[in-house]
Design goal:
This protein has 217 residues and is mainly alpha-helical. α6 packs across α7. It is built from 10 helices and no strands. It has a domain of 146 residues. The model has no long low-confidence stretch (mean pLDDT 78). It is elongated.
């Protein structure tokens, strides 16, 4: 329970923890940030690690001169891209093994074929948009791998989405993170970054499920 509380406190006050780490350990902060972003995007069981809020705080620290803006952006784009590649590879390698028996309760051939068709048609925009959705950005590349989306297509949208996500949010933090109102309400902004995309995803899933119901059902 103590570990969970510490993780929640870290997520909600990532600015304080990160600034303290920079002050005490200097350039080692880059290794820590690379690790967090890589794990958050690359390990399907770690979707709860901070992503958007962490990038925003990194930008704010860059704006204060405590970190290098160009190096942070380049490093974290690399972490995000490599994380997604790792996640995709895990899904592509282990997905078919889990579903190797067509008669098993874990395998639904029709659902698999639908997922494959969906990712071949809409997977690109899904990979890009999922970058901005907590939890979804961890599962989207894994599902793309399971659905056997081609590596070439996945990689293109992986780099595109990672660049837009990291570059956009770090830059926002760089320009707006030092504004007094933003600093005073950063905890609320972090909550909004977590909850708003989640609500959008849930609403979209509910609407899709509602539309999928047969008429009169």
């Amino acid at each position: 329970m103590d570990v969970v509380m510490l993780l929640v406190d870290f997520i909600l006050h990532v600015d304080r923890y990160l600034e303290t780490f920079v002050t005490n350990y200097g350039a080692w902060v880059y290794a820590l940030l690379f690790l967090i972003i890589f794990i958050e995007t690359g390990v399907v069981v770690m979707p709860f690690l901070p992503g958007d809020s962490l990038l925003f705080v990194v930008g704010a620290l860059c704006g204060l001169g405590l970190m290098s803006y160009p190096f942070s952006v380049a490093l974290l784009i690399a972490a995000a891209v490599l994380g997604n590649q790792s996640n995709y590879t895990i899904g592509r390698h282990f997905g078919p093994k889990v579903f190797q028996w067509e008669e098993s309760r874990f395998f639904n051939k029709r659902a698999f074929e639908q997922a494959h068709a969906f990712y071949e048609k809409y997977g690109g925009i899904t990979i890009v948009l999922a970058r901005f959705m907590p939890f979804l950005r961890t599962f989207a590349p894994f599902v793309a791998g399971v659905a056997q989306m081609t590596r070439r297509k996945f990689s293109f949208y992986d780099v595109t989405g990672g660049t837009l996500w990291v570059g956009g949010i770090v830059t926002a933090g760089y320009f707006f993170g030092s504004i007094p109102w933003v600093k005073e309400n950063l905890d609320k902004i972090i909550w909004a970054m977590i909850l708003v995309p989640g609500v959008i995803v849930l609403a979209g899933a509910w609407q899709a499920r509602r539309n999928a119901r047969p008429v009169g059902g």
